Amino acid sequence: MRLASILPKLSRWTRAALALGGTALLAGCNINFWQMDGHQTTMQTSGPVAKSQLEVFYVTCWVTLVIFLIVGGVLAYATVKFKARNAADEHAEPPEQSHGNPLIEISLIGLSVLSLVIIAIPTIKAIGYTYDVPEEERENAYEVTATGYQWWFKFNYPSEQIDGVGDLVTANELVIPAGRPVRVNLRTLDVIHSFWVPKLAGKVDMIPNRGNHLWMQADEPGYFWGQCAEYCGESHAVMRFRVIALTEEDFAHWVARKKAPARTVEINNADANDLPKAQFASFKPREYGFTDKWDADAEIPPLDNWKQQQFPAKDENSHLIAKGRKLFQEKTCLACHKVRGHEGLGITGPDLTHIGSRTTIAGGLLENNPDQMARWLLHPEIVKPGNKMYTTGYVPNNITLSSEEVSALVAYLESLK
Ligand code: CUA
């Protein structure tokens, strides 16, 4: 039997119960809808900028809720009170119509203006506050430059200079000192992107030929999710990044480690006889093998997981790594990427000097582990449609990788801590 023919036969209470049950079921499927504790929720803030943005949201929410209740209440009252109850009612003349009531009209205009003022005051204050680091904090602010590319983020640290190189540069994971304002200069190399770290700050567009900026501050050390928030092409939805806030001491250590050139693993002759078998032969490109490492109740909290990622893996094979380093040149990876201290001059792709120490690859999309790295190298076009590694790297250079080659490249890249 069709739903349309069943529905009219049910009493109105049954229909109401069904509608409520359906809504509850839908809401239940997405628990975050109620809890609002997702990685990218704006309802739980971790810094003053996001907090001031949330406060504006609440003010607007409460004012509109009051308006909704008044208008909805009057409407409901009138609907019930003046409803036609019998045939005589239906044909009755309408009550006498008045035209214009100065008291009502003036109060309506006055109340509308009042509600706008109530919303405008905190809004204007927040616009001023979030625009730039407050005057008295400027001395203390740390500065970084974020540049949007299709589809990843580059981060420059102008205050961390490397002799003969220039700025310290990294990609997709922005490491900042906690408890200190950070001014982020926003640039783009191609189209308009938008920089957004929901729990810290955003969104501000990265516009070609226009220098934008924002500021943010993480109250405590933490691991935060970021996302491009402006449609920028095929893989916009997977243009992600992370912000890692560290204590001043940890941050200084991080900077020192990242300023160093790429790590070189000493060749150990015993490793030649102990080469692991190619591991990724049966890999299916469309299987999204995410682990729960990033969930709020994961076994290892995300920041601790990030800290562990800074150390070399115990099962490294120096021969495989050396082979991977050679392949990095032969397969022309070096034309777009740079491994400072090793090979590569490329600047169109992310700097890979310390890629092994990041928790994410492919522009914040995949967890950085050997399986996901192999998946990314074998099937970049499927993981991230339209990406430049595929369209301007793999296709013109006719790059194909055997499973042995992928194993070596993965070992090399993961060794770059
Ligand atoms: Cu970059 Cu959307």
Q: Helix and strand layout, with pairings?
A:
Layout: H1 3-6, H2 12-29, H3 32-35, H4 48-81, H5 87-91, H6 102-131, E1 142-149, E2 152-162, E3 166-171, E4 173-177, E5 182-188, E6 193-197, E7 201-206, E8 212-216, E9 222-228, E10 240-246, H7 248-259, H8 302-309, H9 318-330, E11 360-361, E12 366-367, H10 370-378, H11 380-383, H12 388-397, H13 403-415
Parallel strand pairs: 1-5, 4-10
Antiparallel strand pairs: 1-2, 2-3, 5-8, 6-7, 6-9, 9-10, 11-12
The chain binds dinuclear copper ion.
Number of strand elements: 12
State the end-to-end distance. 63 Å
**Number of discrete domains:** 2
Tell me the name of the CATH homologous superfamily of the largest domain: Cupredoxins -  blue copper proteins
Number of helices: 13
- How do the strands of the widest beta sheet line up side by side? 3-2-1-5-8
Helical content band: 25-40%
Strand content: 15-25%
Unreliable spans: none
Oligomeric state of the chains in view: single chain
Biggest β-sheet description: 5 strands, mixed
Q: What CATH architecture of the largest domain do you see?
A: Sandwich
CATH topology of the largest domain: Immunoglobulin-like
Bound ligands: dinuclear copper ion
Structure write-up:
- About 40% of the residues lie in helices and about 15% in strands.
- It is of the alpha+beta class and about 425 residues long.
- The chain has two domains: about 35-75 and about 105-260, Immunoglobulin-like; about 270-415, Cytochrome Bc1 Complex, Chain D, domain 2 (Orthogonal Bundle).
- A five-stranded mixed beta sheet has the order 3-2-1-5-8.
- Strand 2 (about 150-160) and strand 3 form a beta hairpin.
- The structure holds dinuclear copper ion.
- Dinuclear copper ion binds near residues 148, 151, 232, 236 and 239.
